[in-house]
Specification:
By secondary structure, the chain is of the alpha/beta class. It contains 15 helices and twelve strands. Helix content is 45%, strand content 16%. The longest helix has 22 residues.
C-alpha cells in the first residue's frame, strides 16, 4: 500500500511538472511560439526586413539541428511601419491573439519605446536586437533585454572620444532626425562633447524622416565653421545630404551613426561616401573578405537568392546572432520553460556568440550589458574598413555594469 501511494505521489509530481512546463503561453511539449515585430514597410524597412530575415534563418537552422530541449521554434512576425502606434497594435495582437511566449523586437527605437509598458504589464520577455533609446535601459525592467545593439549613453562616450581625440575636431556640427533614435544619438554626442571634451557644437540642425532637401541645414553647417559633421538618420537621408553637401562646397569630414555603418549606406551614397567614418555594431560587416563572413553570406544567399543589392545588411547579422543567444538562454532555462526560467537563462549568458560574425553578448542580473564594444570604420575605395582606433578613456557605462 505504501509503495502504491509513493508511486502515485511520484506520478502526481511528474504530472505537475509536465503541466507547469506546458502551461506557459506559447509553449507546448513540441513548440515555442515567438512573436517578432519591426518595420518591413516604410522608410526604415531596411531595419525590419534584415531583422526578420536574419531571425528566420537562425530559427530554421536551430530547428534543423533539433531545436531546444526537444522543442522547435515557430515565428509570427508583424510589420510596425516604424510607428509606435502600429508597433503597440502588433504586440497586442501577438500576445493577446496569437498567444506567443515572448517578443523578439527587430524594430527601431521609435517603435520599440511605444511597446515597453504594455509588454511589461503582460509579464512577457522582450529581447531587443536593435533599439538603443534610453527608455530601453532605464528604468530597469526585469522583462527586457537588449542584445546586439548598444545604449545611447555609450554612443555618446564613443562618438565624442573618437571625434575629439581621433579626428581632433574643435568645432562640430550635428545633423539629426527628429525621431527617437537619431535625436537621442545627437543629444548624447552634444552632451559628451561639451561636458567631457569642451568641444564646441557649432551648429545643431534637425530634419524629418524621409526628407529629400537638406539645403537649409547644410547652409547652417557651412556657416558654423565646423570641422566635422555628425549625421544621424537613415542611409537614404545621409546619401542625399552628402551629395548636397559636396554640391554646396562643404569639404568637412562626415561622421555617421552606427545604423549607417553598413553597405546599404555605401550603395546609396556611392562616391560621396568616401572618407566617411562611424562605429560598427559588429566586427565584420557583410562583404568583408573573412572566412566566417563569406561562409555565412553563402548560406544567406542560398536562403534568400533574390533580394536587392545592400543585403544582407548589419541587421540580418545582428538578429541572426541574437536568435542564437536567445536559444542558448532557453537551453539554460531547461525543459520547464516559462517567463521566470527564461529570464534566469538570459542572465547566465556570458561572452556568447554563435560565430565571430557579431560581438559577444553578455547579460547579468542588470540585463543590459549586451554589446558595449564597437569598432571604428571608414569608407575606403567604396568599402567600410576598420580604422584601428581604440578608446582609451574610462567608461562610466562599462563601470555601471561591473
Amino acid at each position: 500500500m505504501i509503495k502504491k501511494l509513493v508511486g502515485l505521489g511520484v506520478a502526481c509530481i511528474s504530472a505537475m511538472l509536465f503541466a507547469g512546463s506546458a502551461s506557459a503561453q506559447g509553449v507546448t511539449k513540441d513548440e515555442i511560439l515567438i512573436g517578432g515585430f519591426g518595420p518591413i514597410t516604410g522608410p526604415a524597412a531596411y531595419i525590419g526586413l534584415g531583422g526578420r530575415d536574419g531571425l528566420a534563418m537562425a530559427i530554421k537552422e536551430i530547428n534543423a539541428a533539433g531545436g531546444v530541449n526537444g522543442r522547435k521554434f515557430r515565428l509570427i512576425f508583424e510589420d510596425d511601419g516604424h510607428s509606435p502606434t502600429r508597433a503597440l497594435g502588433a504586440v497586442k495582437k501577438l500576445i493577446d491573439q496569437d498567444k506567443v511566449f515572448m517578443i523578439f523586437c527587430a524594430a527601431g527605437s521609435n517603435a520599440t519605446v511605444g511597446t515597453i509598458d504594455y509588454i511589461k504589464a503582460q509579464q512577457r520577455v522582450m529581447y531587443v536586437s536593435f533599439a538603443s533609446a534610453p527608455a530601453v535601459t532605464f528604468p530597469f525592467n526585469s522583462y527586457l533585454f537588449r542584445g546586439a545593439t548598444t545604449e545611447v549613453p555609450r554612443y555618446g562616450e564613443l562618438y565624442s572620444e573618437f571625434i575629439a581625440d581621433g579626428l581632433k575636431a574643435k568645432k562640430v556640427a550635428i545633423m539629426n532626425g527628429r525621431e527617437e533614435y537619431p535625436k537621442n544619438e545627437g543629444n548624447a554626442l552634444a552632451t559628451a562633447l561639451k561636458d567631457v571634451y569642451k568641444v564646441d557644437v557649432a551648429a545643431r540642425a534637425e530634419f524629418n524622416i524621409g526628407d529629400k532637401d537638406f539645403t537649409p541645414q547644410l547652409l547652417s553647417v557651412k556657416n558654423s565653421g565646423a570641422e566635422v559633421v555628425a549625421f544621424f538618420g537613415n542611409p537614404a537621408e545621409a546619401a542625399i545630404a552628402l551629395r548636397q553637401a559636396r554640391e554646396l562646397g562643404l569639404k568637412q569630414k562626415f561622421f555617421v551613426g552606427a545604423t549607417m555603418v553598413d553597405k546599404s549606406f555605401t550603395v546609396a551614397a556611392k562616391e560621396n561616401a568616401e572618407g566617411v567614418t562611424g562605429f560598427s555594431l559588429i566586427p565584420f560587416l557583410p562583404g568583408t573578405p573573412t572566412p566566417a563572413m563569406q561562409s555565412w553570406e553563402a548560406k544567406w544567399k542560398k536562403e534568400y537568392p533574390n533580394l536587392p543589392v545592400g543585403r544582407p545588411n548589419v541587421f540580418d547579422v545582428m538578429a541572426y546572432t541574437d536568435m542564437y543567444v536567445l536559444a542558448e538562454a532557453m537551453k539554460k532555462a531547461g525543459p520547464d520553460l516559462n517567463t521566470k526560467s527564461l529570464i534566469a537563462g538570459l542572465e547566465q549568458i556570458k561572452d556568447f556568440t554563435s560565430s565571430p560574425l557579431a560581438a559577444p553578448i553578455t547579460f547579468t542580473d542588470k540585463h543590459h550589458i549586451g554589446n558595449l564594444t564597437l569598432t571604428v570604420m571608414e569608407v575606403k575605395d567604396g568599402q567600410w574598413q576598420p580604422v584601428g582606433w581604440k578608446p582609451s578613456r574610462p567608461s562610466a557605462i562599462l563601470k555601471r555594469y561591473e
